[in-house]
Design a protein that fits this description.
Oligomer: single chain
CATH architecture of the largest domain: 3-Layer(aba) Sandwich
Helix content: 25-40%
Number of strands: 12
Strand content: 15-25%
Largest sheet: 10 strands, mixed
Shape: globular
Distance between the termini: 36 Å
Structural class: alpha/beta
Order of helices and strands: EHEHHEHEHEEEHEHEHEHEEHHHH
CATH topology of the largest domain: Isopropylmalate Dehydrogenase
Bound molecules: nicotinamide-adenine-dinucleotide
CATH class of the largest domain: Alpha Beta
Radius of gyration: 20 Å
CATH superfamily of the largest domain: Isopropylmalate Dehydrogenase
Strand order of the largest sheet: 2-1-3-12-11-4-5-10-8-9
Amino acid sequence: MRKRIVFLPGDGVGEEVSRGAMKVLRHVAEEYELEIESREFAIGGACLDKHGIPVQEETIAACKNADAVFLGAVGGPEWDKNPAELRPEIALLRLRKELALFTNLRPVKVFSPLAGASSLKPEYVQGVDLLVVRELTGGIYFGQPKFTESIDNGERAVDTMAYSTPEIERIARVAFEAAMKRRKKVTSVDKANILVTSRLWRKTVTRIAEDYPHVELEHLLVDNCAMQLVKNPRQFDVILTGNMFGDVLSDEASMLTGSLGMLPSASLGTGVGLYEPVHGSAPDIAGKNIANPLAAIASVALMFHYSFNMENAAQTIEKAIEKVLKVGFRTADLTMNGHESVSTSEMTDEVIRKIDAQKNDSAAQNLSAGNGKVYWLLETMSLETS
Ligand code: NAD
């Protein structure tokens, strides 16, 4: 078997953790006799420096023709003063839209050896295993009009939040299908007491829930959800929400795991999938070889799972991550009580050592999330985003 992968390291620590993730990807691919054909492109700030634009058309075309895309992170203070159309983040929004990646899955799982690394007490985070299903191509990040204008006493800026019934229906189905394979509970998060988009969201999700009688549905206002995530995070199974709320809540949820450097993500549509750590380019620690590569490496596991349907390979990576943590390896973001830390590259190499150590293990079991059906569902859905 052969797979074409587009590799977009991006900026700051994105570049550093991507190298580790690709190393793990190649290693596991070899073990499972998967031939990898990869192409690398600059994106975000790196692309602005090289080509004067955040993303090249050639890159978009290559992504559309790939079997999967891996992205590190984009952005950094060097480009913060750029005009809106020349900001690194434009590359990411463009990719999401062009690849019609309307689903963003962010699994938040607390590995037991890391329960003490969270800023919450271990007894609150132990056992947390939730999935954030975030709508990714609609809402306020994409709504039009979007502009800044001059007014008498300064400037005025406008963003538009819009959602349509089909957009809500398809992401709701993804969440319910995922819940069917998990603990059968969906928490839909909105701001229905204030926003009309949220009222449509709530009405539509409630209607779709009728097709899933075995799944419990609850609605939470986003402010309450933010509070419940730190008060009692174990109550959540699948959190279904829109683009902006999902962005914020998943960063908050990452702290349950101990670090933003632990959270992987998969962005799926009806074609190629894009895999990236949830974190950004972390300019404060970039270039020091101290970033945590585990979110990026776990994103490779999601790639094997969702894009290549290779459950055993995905499990091999997940188990290796769990083992390195169990034996005590920690990057600086996860250290506590004066523990020594390892570098980005050392952590990557430890994961590879643990993968090798598993070679003769019995066949891995299916991923607990078991979301193959979700991907099948995505394939049957329309590509259109309104
Ligand atoms: P960030 O995620 O880059 O960093 C937030 C905090 O988490 C920082 O303290 C950082 O050191 C830490 N952190 C992040 N990743 C880590 C890792 N792998 N290991 C250890 N610690 C890690 O968010 P930010 O500082 O708000 O944004 C920095 C830049 O990244 C901005 O330009 C922003 O636009 C961009 N950004 C990009 C993406 C993306 O590419 N998907 C996502 C978020 C932010």
